[in-house]
């Protein structure tokens, strides 16, 4: 995440931190328990400073320490569960999605409402529910315990870890359904049930149950592990593909970049994709990264290189990447690499992480509370350090509403299949960049000319996924536009001896 943005968010968060969460649930901590929690908070801070990459530059430690001291001061008025939630809020100040307390760990074992909901464009709707609440499927949730659901969401934004609100929205879908969390968010006592106010105006009492019942439910998100035309779902696959003969389209879904337990290894899977493309029956490739997560990013290059170098597929309108709030981790890295190295069109919703993220989780156990805390420890850049983005915006946005879910439609897939590429008008500029190498002091890019076309390219460094290969086309304003949205090349102050790369609104001077 961009450092200035992170520090600004940290300061804004702290302004709310001491004001927003004052109502407590459960029995207050004893003096001995307060001391134990103070030790656990100090333990987490020590581990965070030791683990977080470039912590001095990326976190405002003084402001962070102030928030930690406030939490310690509040401990005598908190219950055990409140302390856990407040510690989660403290870790959320880092602005990293994987820094936090995993709520489904056995050491917590929270009871939950036995239903799965989803935040659509038009509200929070119940997608699946256990008996005897099946009649709630399709109902919109307006409030819980007489607190509007959007008010609950506003509080959750300050408690949950995430690079951006899109990632937090995904976590919020299940977090509010956990017993201690709902009590905290609605400022009520811990109870055996919750009162839902529905879009119909009716109220429903729903009892909490073991979270295993929640996990067993199915939200049936679009094309997750199976296309509408699939004969059988890919229930345990980390990656899979299907060919759509009527549109000559190869659909590929990535859930994690690690070898499948059964079937081809990731390396062999990429080879199968290459064989399909070379066979001549594929005109369009759709890469579905909506539900992706972890894995090994160093496995990606053969696949991303394949799409970059395939002249027929790497054309406007032939290559699509589906994105959403669940696009993160190694699959997010793939998305960023493909955005910077192909003519892919991104379809869907903003991603759950930005192009420069911290990943790789180290779990530490609180010495007194005994619960596990996740801390990320490695910075994986896939863009310039100056890149201010905290998400990757799609080229073509998709609205996902309850009616689409009810009809089991996939607007992402429909949009990609029906997309028609439109040629962008070229204009003449009064200058042409000299080919050769240019540097901003840290990274070196090369301007190349091939058959009358200019390209800007950059090779990745060791232990980095940041590389660029994009065509430059003349456009208005005496500049060249890249295949990438909001990226332009201009002449520098010293003519063709320097260039200015305008990257998502940020100027980057490149000298020969």
**CATH H-level homologous superfamily name of the largest domain:** 2-enoyl-CoA Hydratase, Chain A, domain 1
Strand content: 25-35%
Detail the poorly predicted runs.
18-24
Distance between the termini: 29 Å
- Note the total helix count: 14
Helix content: 25-40%
Task: Summarize the biggest pleated sheet.
Answer: 8 strands, antiparallel
- By CATH, the architecture of the largest domain is named Alpha-Beta Complex
Overall mean pLDDT: 92
Total domain units: 4
> Radius of gyration in whole Å, from Cα?
25 Å
Q: Class by helix and strand content? A: alpha+beta
Number of strands: 24
Strand order of the largest sheet: 17-18-19-20-21-22-23-24
- CATH class of the largest domain equals Alpha Beta
Description:
With 512 residues, the chain is of the alpha+beta class. The protein has four domains: 1-96, no CATH class; 102-219, Pdz3 Domain (Roll); 239-362 and 381-418, 2-enoyl-CoA Hydratase, Chain A, domain 1 (Alpha-Beta Complex), CATH 3.90.226.10; 436-511. Helix content is 30%, strand content 26%. It is built from 14 helices and 24 strands. The chain has helices at residues 3-20, 31-51, 55-58, 61-74, 80-92, 149-159, 165-175, 179-186, 211-215, 266-278, 301-309, 329-341, 402-406, 411-418, and strands spanning 111-112, 115-120, 123-129, 141-144, 147-148, 193-198, 203-207, 209-210, 239-244, 249-254, 284-288, 319-323, 345-348, 356-365, 372-381, 396-397, 436-439, 444-450, 453-458, 468-475, 479-482, 487-492, 495-503, 506-511. Strands 17-18-19-20-21-22-23-24 form an eight-stranded antiparallel beta sheet. The chain has a six-stranded mixed beta sheet with strand order 9-10-11-12-13-16, with helices on both faces. Strands 5-4-6-7 form a four-stranded antiparallel beta sheet. A hairpin with a 4-residue loop joins strand 9 and strand 10. Helix 1 runs parallel beside helix 4, helix 4 (61-74) runs antiparallel to helix 5 and helix 11 (301-309) packs parallel to helix 12 (329-341). The protein is globular and about 75 Å long. The protein starts with a helix and ends with a strand.
């Amino acid at each position: 995440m961009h450092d200035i943005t992170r520090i600004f968010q940290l300061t804004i968060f702290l302004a709310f931190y001491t004001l927003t969460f004052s109502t407590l649930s459960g029995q207050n901590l004893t003096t001995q328990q307060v001391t134990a929690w103070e030790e656990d908070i100090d333990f987490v801070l020590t581990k965070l400073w030791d683990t977080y990459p470039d912590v001095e530059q990326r976190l405002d430690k003084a402001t962070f320490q102030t928030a930690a001291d406030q939490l310690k001061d509040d401990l005598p008025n908190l219950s055990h569960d409140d302390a856990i939630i407040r510690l989660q809020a403290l870790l959320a100040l880092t602005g990293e999605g994987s820094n936090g307390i995993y709520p489904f760990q056995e050491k917590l074992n929270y009871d939950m409402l036995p239903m799965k909901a989803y935040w659509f464009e038009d509200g929070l709707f119940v997608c699946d529910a256990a008996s005897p609440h099946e009649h709630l499927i399709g109902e919109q949730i307006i409030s819980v315990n007489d607190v509007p659901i959007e008010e609950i969401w506003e509080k959750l934004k300050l408690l949950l870890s995430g690079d951006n609100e899109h990632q937090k929205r995904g976590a919020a879908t299940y977090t509010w359904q956990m017993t201690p969390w709902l009590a905290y968010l609605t400022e009520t006592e811990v109870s055996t049930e919750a009162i839902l106010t529905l879009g119909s105006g009716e109220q429903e009492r729903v009892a909490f149950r073991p979270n295993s019942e929640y996990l067993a439910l199915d939200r049936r998100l679009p094309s997750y592990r199976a296309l509408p035309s699939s004969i059988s779902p890919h229930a345990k696959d980390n990656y899979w593909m299907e060919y759509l003969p009527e549109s000559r389209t190869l659909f590929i879904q990535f859930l994690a970049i690690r070898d499948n337990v059964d079937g081809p290894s990731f390396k062999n899977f990429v080879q199968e994709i290459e064989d399909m493309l070379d066979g001549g029956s594929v005109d369009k490739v759709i890469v579905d990264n909506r539900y992706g997560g972890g894995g090994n990013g160093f496995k990606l290059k053969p696949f991303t290189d394949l799409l970059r170098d395939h002249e027929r597929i790497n054309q406007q309108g032939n290559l699509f990447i589906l994105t959403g709030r669940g696009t993160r981790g190694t699959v997010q890295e793939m998305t960023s690499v493909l955005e910077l190295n192909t003519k892919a069109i991104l379809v869907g919703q903003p991603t759950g992480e930005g192009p420069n993220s911290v990943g790789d989780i180290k779990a530490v156990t609180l010495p007194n509370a005994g619960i596990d805390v996740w801390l990320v420890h490695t910075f994986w850049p896939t863009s310039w350090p100056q890149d201010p983005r905290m998400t990757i915006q799609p080229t073509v946005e998709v609205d996902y509403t309850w009616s689409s879910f009810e009809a089991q439609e996939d607007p992402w897939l429909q949009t990609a299949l029906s997309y028609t590429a439109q040629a962008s008008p070229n204009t003449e500029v009064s200058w042409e960049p000299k080919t050769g190498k240019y540097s901003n002091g840290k990274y070196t890019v090369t301007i190349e000319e091939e058959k009358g076309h200019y390209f800007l390219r950059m090779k990745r460094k060791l232990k980095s996924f940041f590389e660029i290969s994009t065509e430059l086309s003349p456009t208005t304003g005496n500049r060249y536009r890249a295949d990438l949205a909001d990226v332009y090349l201009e002449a520098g102050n010293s003519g063709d001896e320097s260039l200015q790369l305008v990257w998502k609104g940020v100027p980057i001077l490149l000298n020969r």
